[in-house]
Specification:
Helices cover 31% and strands 20% of the residues. The longest helix has 19 residues. The protein starts with 21 loop residues before the first strand and ends in a 14-residue tail after the last helix. The strands form 3 sheets. Strands 16-15-14-13-7-12-11-8-17 form a 9-stranded mixed sheet, with helices on both faces. The protein has a 6-stranded parallel sheet with strand order 3-2-1-4-5-6, with helices on both faces. The chain is an alpha/beta fold. The protein binds 6-O-phosphono-beta-D-glucopyranose. The site of 6-O-phosphono-beta-D-glucopyranose has 5 residues, from loops.
Length: 507
């Protein structure tokens, strides 16, 4: 570790074990449980953050037993040691940490829509419970209703009952409102933990520290100094096996009101009065409410055609499994957003996300206004390149800032240089899947990183006009392995701007 770095403060998710509770996982046989929840619990156990009285009860409609589920999940944990491409990859599985989790796993067979399953569930749990809905979105409402009707959401005598809900939370503003109303009829808002996994990413959480812990950044983070902001979430993967989900969903619903809005909120919200969950979520809500509803003319929708990705030929979206040959679903979105508040009035925020793009890159780039040019009038300098600060979130984690410096030599000539840091050069990170903090926070009752009903609805409200306008709208095509459709370039070109290349500053 670099000697100039001092580490202080508590570890990412506290130092004390979370209070004892049962984690009931609906969808125990599913992908999310295997790929993310179990590795996260294993890491929490390894860090001593789970109480002795912690238990897991997997619920699913297939046949299994306590021991059967233990064996299945042990097999997937072992498989991660051989698969370097999995979200969680470790050289070996520590028998002590995994044993702690494994021994606490139980199984309950049940149909999510059958009241009998909840009667049986009631017989298996007591004390504090976190119900984790790792299931398809159509089950969110019914499961919460059944839990409520069975009395499983009642909190008494210091016992907590919480429900974690995955995305997608609704498919537009009306359905999100309806789902909020449906679940809030069964329990209090404070019992619901709506997950957005982007908030589990350490680098997303660190945006607040970067902005508010640095005196040289905070004062310039505003319209007087910022020309515009670009937020990018580019992926190289295609739609994979998720065609059936993706066809009615598309990139706008899949990524914008949730993940990209979280990045937007982190980078643009006002400083909360404290790190208290309500203070942070209140500032996010204010920011999201200030986002002007997006006009169709400020948005581009694209779809990938066949092309080459990482040296291989890949098929176009319409030839992916479970996708219509005439699909008009977008796999790429670019947007221009305006924020109508005092800090950001007049500063455009450009957002883009897409599948099958040139590189995988999630970043936020703050483009600063250039200083006055007159000093350089009589030199060889023809323009001042803007300072750009790139907050790199994925796959590289760190930041890179473009500055103008004098080139060595007798004349005044400028060169642009990048001053950069990578988290990995300063901090040692253990392999983690980003769900560790989220699960721990839910068990300790810290809702800061979860979305409140109003946060969710504000995200949908901003994109709702586009969802309506895009029902039968055509898509612009881009070849797989490129930076997106030409129309997205035009969106910025008409404002005299350009997207940054998808290289995180390395090109
Ligand atoms: C999910 C979307 O929520 O986020 C996926 O449904 C997308 O389509 C994924 O690939 C991106 O997340 P990450 O963490 O891989 O950047």
């Amino acid at each position: 570790m670099d000697p100039t770095v001092t580490l202080s403060g508590p570890a990412a998710c506290g130092t004390e074990p979370a209070p004892p509770c049962t984690l009931v996982i609906f969808g125990a046989a599913g992908d999310l449980t295997k790929r993310l929840l179990m590795p996260a619990l294993y890491n929490l156990a390894g860090a001593g953050l789970l109480a002795d009285g912690f238990k897991i009860l997997g619920v699913d409609h297939n046949d299994n037993t306590d021991e059967g589920l233990r064996q299945d999940l042990t097999a997937t944990m072992e498989s991660f040691t051989k698969d370097a491409s999995s979200e969680f990859h470790a050289d070996h599985i520590d028998p002590k940490a995994w044993g702690f989790v494994r021994d606490r796993i139980g199984f309950l067979k049940g149909d999510f829509e059958d009241p009998a399953a909840y009667a049986a569930l009631k017989g298996r749990v007591g004390g504090s419970v976190v119900f984790y809905l790792a299931v398809a979105a159509r089950f969110f409402g019914p499961i919460v209703e059944h839990l409520g009707q069975a009395g499983l959401l009642e909190q008494q005598d210091g016992v907590f009952r919480r429900v974690v809900i995955e995305k997608p939370f609704g498919s537009d503003l009306a359905s999100a409102r309806a789902l909020n109303a449906r679940i809030l009829a069964q329990a209090d808002e404070s019992q619901f933990y709506r997950i957005d996994h982007f908030l589990g990413k350490e680098t997303v959480q660190s945006i607040m520290a970067l902005r508010f812990a640095n005196g040289m950044l905070e004062p310039v983070w505003r319209r007087e100094y910022v020309d515009h902001v670009q937020i990018t979430a580019a992926e190289t993967i295609g739609v994979e096996e998720r065609g059936a989900f993706y066809e009615p969903t598309g990139a706008l619903r899949d990524m914008v009101p949730n993940h990209l809005f979280q990045l937007l909120c982190m980078v643009a919200m006002e400083a909360p009065n404290s790190f208290d969950a309500e203070a942070v979520r209140g500032e996010k809500a204010k920011l999201a409410e200030a986002v002007r509803p997006i006009e169709p003319g400020d948005a581009v929708r694209g779809q990938y055609t066949a092309g080459r990705e990482e040296g291989l030929d890949v098929v176009g979206y319409r030839d992916e499994p479970h996708v219509s040959g005439e699909s008009h679903t977008e796999t790429y979105v670019a947007l221009k957003l305006g924020i109508e508040n005092w800090r950001w009035a007049g500063v455009p925020f450009y957002l883009r996300t897409g599948k099958r793009m040139t590189e995988r890159l999630t970043e936020i780039a703050i483009h600063f206004k250039p200083p006055p040019f007159h000093l350089f009038r009589e030199t060889a300098v023809t323009e001042l390149a803007p300072n750009v600060m790139r907050l790199l979130i994925d796959p590289e984690q760190g930041s890179s800032t473009i500055l103008n410096v004098k080139r060595p030599g007798p004349q005044m000539q400028l060169g642009s240089v990048a001053t950069a840091f990578r988290y990995a050069d300063f901090f040692q990170e253990k392999p983690n899947v980003g769900y560790e903090t989220l699960l721990y926070d839910c068990m300790v009752g810290d809702a800061t990183l979860f979305q409140r009903a109003d946060n969710i609805e504000a995200g949908w409200a901003a994109v709702d006009p586009l969802l309506k306008a895009w029902v039968d709208a055509p898509v612009a095509f881009y070849a797989a392995g490129t930076d997106g459709p030409k129309e997205a370039e035009d969106l910025l070109a008409r404002d005299g701007r350009r997207w940054l290349p998808l290289d995180g500053g390395s090109r």
